[in-house]
Amino acid sequence: MTSALTRFTLIFYTPPSALAACKAAIFAAGAGRYPGPGNYTECAWVATGTGQFRPGDTANPHIGKVGALEEVEEARVETLCIGEEVVRRAVAALKGAHPYEEPAYAVYKIEDF
Strands 7-14 and 45-53, how do they pair? Predict the structure, then answer.
């Protein structure tokens, strides 16, 4: 039963140019499905902001130059993942679709109260 599975929130950051591809990849992996009678899919929250990073000496950055501080517009995406298998597949799909050498993401376990 789906309701008995652990819920997770996957959060990641991506340049706007890769947003559609990243969302398509995680949704294909099972993320963004909300349990219940409505059968909602591809559910996510997206906001834009400014990310920053400084690539290290051994980096191969998609954006910016080694050693230089870079500020870029990025989208923050939050979505629900039902079950550990789904969140693991979604993270793997994100890593495959994301253009950055090291995509920034976080996974949080959701408590059921």
Answer: unpaired
Q: What is the β-pairing status of strands 70-82 and 7-14?
A: antiparallel
CA nearest neighbour of 80 among 1, 22, 14, 6: 6
pTM, two decimals, is 0.89
Q: Quick one: how far is CA 99 from the chain centroid?
A: 12
Tell which CATH architecture fits domain 18-110. 2-Layer Sandwich (3.30)
Phi, psi of 16 (to 5 degrees): -55, -30
Instruction: For residue range 4-44, list pLDDT tens digits in order.
Output: 789 999 999 999 999 999 999 999 999 999 988 899 999 99
Cα 34–Cα 82–Cα 14 angle in degrees, nearest 5: 85
The shares of helix, strand and coil residues in the chain, as percent rounded to the nearest 5, are 25, 35, 40
- Residue 70, classed as helix, strand or coil, is strand
